[in-house]
Each structure stands twice: as C-alpha cells, then as structure tokens.
Design a protein that fits this description.
Belongs to the short-chain dehydrogenases/reductases (SDR) family. 36% of the residues lie in helices and 11% in strands. It is of the alpha/beta class and 335 residues long. The chain has one domain (68-328): 3-Layer(aba) Sandwich (Rossmann fold), CATH 3.40.50.720. Helix 2 (101-112) packs parallel to helix 3 (126-138). The relative contact order is 0.14. Bound molecules: nicotinamide-adenine-dinucleotide and magnesium ion (MG). Magnesium ion (MG) binds at residues 65, 99-100, 121, 125, 128, 276.
C-alpha cells in the first residue's frame, strides 16, 4: 500500500466530519485508497463537444499496425489526466493491444486504480509499448510486456501462462486487440485478409479466454472490445464488422455460461475513436479527414474517454453487471 493512501482511523473520522461539513456541495467519504481529500478543489465542468480535437484532420497514413506516437494529433490515453482512486487495488490484468488506443487507456487507468498489468502487442509496436510500461511503473504497479502475434494459438496460450507466472495470478482479461483494414468491395478482400481478421478478432479471444479460465477465480472479469460496427456495419468493413457482431455475441453467451462460476463478462462498444487502427488502413483518407464529424458530438472520441468504462466493468463493485455492452459513440445510439 502506498503511504499516501494509508489512512488511520482518526484521519478517516476527522475527514468524515470535514466532508459532512461540506455535504451541501457534494460530500465524499474518505475511504482507504480514496484520492480525493475534502479540501480538493472540484474539477470545473468541461464541455464534451469542445474538450478534444474536431475534424477536419490532416490526411495521414502509417504502415499497419501504426504507432500512436506518430499520429497528428497524438491521441489522449489519459497520460496526464486519468486519476485513480484504488478501485482495482491488488488486481492482476492482461490487456491485448495494450500499447495504443483503448487498450493503452485501460492499461494506464488500471495501473492508477492499483492493478498490476500485462500488455500484449505486436513487435512493431515496441515504441508505444515502452511508453505504456513506463506509465504503469510510474503508477507504482508491476508492468509486464509480452509482444507476439495473436493469430498463433500456441502464442495465445503462452501469453496467458507467462502473464500468470509474471503477475502471480490473473483476474481481469481485456480482449481488445483487433485487425481492421477497409476494402471498398468484397471483390478486393482476399482469403488471406479475411483469415487474418477472423484469426485476430475471433480466434484469439477464444484461445486466450480458454487458456485464462482455469486461472480465473470467482470475482474475476472478462471484457471484450466490440464496436458500433456490430449493429451498424460500414460498407467497406465487410469482414471486420462481422467479427464485432461475433464479439458482442460471445460476450452475451459467455456471460450466461460463466455467471454461475462468479465470472463476469462484459463488452465495450466504441464509436469512432482516434487511434492507430484508423490511420493504418482502417479508414479511407476521406473518412479520416472527417473522422467523427457525423456524430452528434461532431468529433471522434479519444481513448481516455473510455478508460473509466473499462474500469467500471472490471470493478468488483459492479458485481451484478454481466452480459452487458457499454457504448461510447458520441451520441450515435445504442451498441
Ligand atoms: P489500436 O490500433 O490502438 O489497437 C489495436 C491493437 O491490436 C494494436 O495496438 C495491436 O497491438 C493489436 N493487434 C492487432 N493485430 C494483432 C495481432 N495479430 N497480434 C497481436 N496484437 C495485434 O486501435 P484501437 O482502435 O484502440 O483498437 C482497440 C479495439 O477497439 C479493437 O478491438 C477495435 O476493433 C475496437 N474499436 C475501435 C474503434 C475505433 O474507432 N478506433 C471503434 C470501435 C471499436
Ligand atoms: Mg498499437
């Protein structure tokens, strides 16, 4: 336990009376691990429509899988803003695609909430992964980096075994990695493309969850990253969109199967989010320049805006939430 989080009974009681005194402006019970002190200034209200960059964006392209650090503007994964309050203290998490995008935002948030975190990514993403490892360590947590290709069943099994060995257990699995390469026509989609998308987005979660299950105790959580594409597929994402429908579906099936074992399974369904996926073949340049502009929010989301959703779904306090898919699409509707 970090020293600043250690609260004596006297501190708790004196903090309690202080917060009761300010009850009219919103009291906060100072429990162990809480980051808020009674005298902390409230965060000013922030207009979400103007909080982050809006289109038009510069035309830009990177070879797949792309690096967050080379995007313009660089995405916000919560590096400077996410504040933890001990919600995942002592937990051990594996996050695939933890180097960038939503996986990175979840990794930073989990570490700041007190979890040790293992991330998987492709070897080409080492530069992004190094930054995430440094951020997890800066939060005072253990960081494990396991590069490798999830299209390989043997690697998926090894990933889980290495995570369990190096973290000393596993209680949160975030299956987040995915392949998205747009093709204007089904005629342009090769069998190799189709196979790579299915292997990454459907087979890998199957292999990883099977390998993880024997280690997951009651109270553990599995989280899948699905998409608004599951229910509202784009014309140029024939293969990708159907894998997201499959992800939403497996979340609901597995939730029913694992509820009696005390393991919760939930999904996050993002709308357009500013990540390397989109600049490395996931979207056309035309779509990229206007990215997110057609949502009611008139902008894309930033990965940090989904961090608290990944935390909420992993938090043991959300103990009755399973089989749920939580959307974050700037107003575009239900997942
Ligand atoms: P991202 O590029 O930052 O993350 C995807 C990650 O997948 C990569 O960082 C890479 O490490 C990993 N990956 C891909 N193929 C792999 C392989 N063969 N082996 C190992 N790792 C591999 O992009 P993101 O947008 O943060 O994507 C995260 C999740 O969000 C994905 O499941 C994606 O489908 C979903 N999603 C994204 C958006 C969006 O607009 N960005 C919208 C809806 C859903
Ligand atoms: Mg990446």
């Amino acid at each position: 336990m970090k020293d600043e989080n250690k609260l004596s009974r006297r501190q708790i009681i004196s903090g309690l009376s202080a917060s009761l005194a300010v009850a009219t402006v919103g009291s906060v019970l100072p429990v162990e691990g809480a980051a808020l002190s009674p005298e902390a200034a409230p965060e000013p209200l922030k207009d979400p429509t103007t909080a982050y960059p809006r289109p038009p964006f510069k035309s830009q392209t990177q070879p797949w899988p792309g690096l967050a650090s080379k995007m313009d503007p660089v995405p916000d994964h919560g590096e400077k803003s996410y504040k933890g309050s001990g919600r995942l203290k002592g937990r051990k998490a594996l996050i695939t695609g933890g180097d960038s995008g939503m996986g990175r935002a979840a990794a930073i948030a989990y570490a700041r909430e007190g979890a040790d975190v293992a991330i998987n990514y492709l070897p080409a993403e080492e530069a992004d992964a190094k930054e995430v490892v440094a951020l997890i360590k800066a939060a005072g947590q253990k960081a494990v980096a396991i590069p490798g290709d999830l299209r390989d069943e043997a690697f998926c099994k090894k990933l889980v075994e290495d995570t369990v060995r190096q973290l000393g257990g596993l209680d949160i699995v975030v299956s987040n990695a995915a392949r998205q390469q747009q093709r204007q026509s089904i005629m342009d989609l090769t069998t190799e493309d189709f196979d790579a998308t299915m292997k990454t987005n459907i087979y890998a979660p199957f292999w990883i969850i099977k390998a993880a299950l024997p280690h997951l105790k009651p109270g553990s959580a599995i989280i899948g990253t699905t998409s608004e594409q599951a229910t509202d597929p784009s014309a140029d994402l024939y293969d990708y969109a159907q894998t997201k429908a499959a992800t939403t579906n497996f979340v609901r099936s597995l939730a029913k199967q694992l509820a009696p074992k005390g393991i919760r399974v939930n999904g996050v369904a993002p709308g357009p989010i500013w990540t390397p996926l989109q600049v490395s073949g996931g979207a056309t340049q035309e779509k990229l320049q206007k990215f997110g502009g057609d949502t009611p929010m008139k902008r894309p989301g930033q990965p940090v805006e989904l961090a608290s959703i990944y935390v909420q779904l992993a938090d043991p306090q959300a103990s009755y939430a399973t089989g749920q898919v939580y959307g974050a699409s700037g107003g575009a509707g239900m997942p």
